[in-house]
Amino acid sequence: MNFATFVLRRLGLAIFVLLGVAVITFTLSHLVSSNPLVAWLGRASGNRVLAAEYIQKYHLNDPLYVQFGYYLLALLHGDLGFSVFKGEPVSEALAQTLPFTLQIAFFAILLTLAIGIPLGVLAARYNHTAVDYSISGFYLAGIASPYFLLALFLLIVLTYTLHLLPSGGAFSPWVIEPYPITHFPLIDALLEGQWSIFVDGLTHLIMPSLALALGIFGYVTRVLRASLLDVLHANYIRTARAKGVDETTLFFKHALRNASIPVVTLASIVVTWLVTGTLFVEVIFAYPGIGQYAVQALSNLDYPSLLAITLVLAVIIVLSNLAADILYAVVNPEIRLR
Amino acid sequence: MKQRSSEESKRFLKSFLTRNEARLGLSIVFVFLAVSIIITITGKSLLPYDPVKQNVGPILASPTMAHLFGTDNLGRDVFSRIVIATPNDLVVSFIVIASSFLIGIVLGAIAGFWGGILDEILMRSTDVIFAIPALILAMSIAVILGPSLVHMMYALMIIWWPPYARLARGEALQVSQKNFIESAKTSGTNTLTILKKHLIPNILNPMLAYATLDIGTVVVVYAGLSYLGLSVQPPTPDWGAMVSAYQDYLISAPWLPLLPAVIIALVVIGFSLLGNALRDTIESQNIS
Fold first, then answer.
1. Which ipTM did the prediction report?
2. Mean pLDDT of all residues in B232-236
3. Class of domain B16-45+86-284
4. Are the Cβ atoms of A280 and B224 closer than 8 angstroms?
5. What is this structure's pTM?
6. Cβ partners under 8 Å of residue B235, min gap 6
7. What b/e readout covers A116-155, taking b as 16+ CB neighbours within 10 angstroms?
8. Chain-chain contact of B247 with A301 (C-beta, under 8 angstroms)
């Protein structure tokens, strides 16, 4: 199979999966209440004008398969229903909250790699020693922690005991948020040259991202350690050593580069964890992202928002899996032959 | 088909029990299981205080001999509240895992054995369910069913089986190409018998190891749902819900939210250690 066919196949699969997800959210929207209008308008379904508009728009008096067709059409137009408690269309609420979550996710991934890779290297280099065992104890504790434990723990240590970081929010209360250009507040602050706002936003990002990273870095450490130990016994390493390559070059240039390839396969686990963990972390740190939005929607029984968030998170997961699959095929050509 | 003799089981158990991971994991799991069983039988009669009764001590007292884990904002004994909630997480995770195991092994074995269109349907539908994070999907289902422990369990049962089906399918695919299955087929044994007698016993081991590791994952997800207020309703105690209720006292009484959270982590660690040891033992037996 050549590379283009591989990518096309994966793309087809991703589209199929997204269609399946739409079937699930569509089914859920009909299970919410005997009146499907509730799923699109929530408590506003009593509003005659809005109700008439949505019955017409979603063809709610037509057979189910017709409704599903119009549902897909609406999704493709970015129409996700109306959120009563936000007082705006769901798509707008999503556009405001999603960038905040993506900021957290980006830094969480950076921190996951920054903690996971060095510890994986250490654990492999000193395998079956006290160093290896303490590292595995450390990551086991992280993986086993429920989503909220690490966040609460960091709050106690870094905020209430050491007074190093702010307890929550995206910016300090006195900071005027940067004018939205890209809608990513940190990037906007940089573009507008507001250095102090950027630093303020960054200090508010550290704890939420760290809380997520501490729960997930263990997977990176574990996989990297195992694959490093495999690679170090490979023939080409023995050959390189016999040719007189010094141990440091051997380890970092020959072994580590190849051993890093399997880490790419963790993308799916990492993204799923981030997407779930962000619900708890954003609530605990009062961060105005999609996770906090989801929990607010939950307590307000705002179905349109909940279904839309489910869909958006699934899209994020499918796209990142697709990207990881393609990246994996790029760094590891062997996979394409299967 | 090799039947595992008692000799082999003994060797397996011996190799399993020499692992430190297995011993530590077993001890942790044993404690929680014992507490769950005792609580299920005796209810609150053995507890030092009634877990829902208010003002059994001062408000927000630090841990003392009288109140091991201190008291909460309503003067309730936190130790009694944590202990009485032990069966919740364990029962939910055992039932969810058991049902996923059953659904998964049946669907997976059928798909792997027959292949073709059945296999394709199974694989693609698991692809779809994998795309939605378990907790988010459970949340959407929970909103429809309404909050309660049993409803949470249903929600998790609906979404938890796909990895089991995948695992069973992969193993079944491998096993079904082996000679003893071929010879059973040619000797005219009917398919159901082949599945029951030859295929399923051979895919059980790797699935058991996965299931043990997975119990911890259910505990974490269930605790998350409980934290979001979707499970047991107050005043009935539940670990996840306690963390969210006590979070406001993070400065004045940090042990209140931390203790239930750490207990959850401990359960997860216990099952992870056990699952890891089980997997390693199975792998080393396969090699030898």
1. 0.88
2. 86
3. mainly alpha
4. yes
5. 0.90
6. B52
7. bbebbbbbbbebeeeebeebbebbbbbbbbbbbbbbbbbb
8. no
